[in-house]
Amino acid sequence: MTTAPKAGFSVEVTEGGPYVIDGTAVVRSATPVVSERGEPMTWRYGAPEVVEGAALCRCGASDDKPFCDGSHAEVDWVAACTPPEGSSAERARTKTGTGLTLVDDDVLCMHAGFCGTERTSVWRMMGDTADTEVRATVIRMVEKCPSGRLANRIDDTIVEPSLPAEIGVVPDGPLWLTGGIDVDGVETRNRMTLCRCGASSTKPLCDGSHVDIDFSAPAPTDETEDSP
Asked: pLDDT tens, 14-53?
């Protein structure tokens, strides 16, 4: 699977402590917009905050989320990182339709829900991609997957959305890194999600455990409708 060009900053996963930004980065909230049935449809982005050398909480206990306040030294949490082995391209499975192949690396899933609706899912829709409207819908849904579990392959080439190099803060969820940001110990990809609840089994990546533990970290109140 192809990766995005590297960003102008990187993220260090400190031993027993926070994520530390090496360089200057943009951090802003990224909130799913859902339908009346609770189906994720798109993203709403908050005002950007430029930070340099900031420490971001990964234990889940900070009172200054998404920033670290030192709580990792006071709470009982598992800080060790056990990311998936190998590359995403080696792990991924595929499902081919007309003019489109769905690439699926399910170990990266953080259960954002953009891949389906109450009635269907991108996997089911792959059987109908001879219809260009269905094909376009699948492509749009896949591009909104924050973790990069899903990708579109067209004419033997992975087609990734063009995303800025920045860190999104998902309310009650992970940190969403876009634009090819280097993170210690994991493959550099265009889209990835990092655990900030402290409970993921695939740290530093998010595995959706924030839902299981009812992690609470509301988004800032300065959200806008702007796209990234």
From this structure: 999 999 999 999 999 999 999 999 999 999 999 999 999 9
Measured between alpha carbons, how far is 143 from 115 in angstroms, rounded to an integer?
Answer: 9
**The 3-state secondary structure of the chain, one letter per residue:** CCCCCCCCCEEEECCCCCEEEECEEEEEEEEEEECCCCCEEEEEEECCEEEECCEECCCCCCCCCCECCCHHHCCCCCCCCCCCCCCHHHHCEEEECCCCEEEECHHHCCCCCCCECCCCEHHHHHHHCCCHHHHHHHHHHHHCCCCCCEEEEECCEEECCCCCCEEEECCCCCEEEECCCEECCCCCCCEEEECCCCCCCCCCECCCHHHHCCCCCCCCCCECCCCC
Smallest Cα–Cα separation from 14: which of 171, 185, 191? 185
Both tokens assigned to 34: 């859902």
pLDDT, residue 226, reads 52
pLDDT in tens, 44-101: 999 999 999 999 999 999 999 999 999 999 999 999 999 999 999 999 999 999 999 9
Cis preceding linkage at 204, omega within 30: yes
Contact residues for 52 (Cβ-Cβ < 8 A; gap 6+): 21, 23, 24, 25
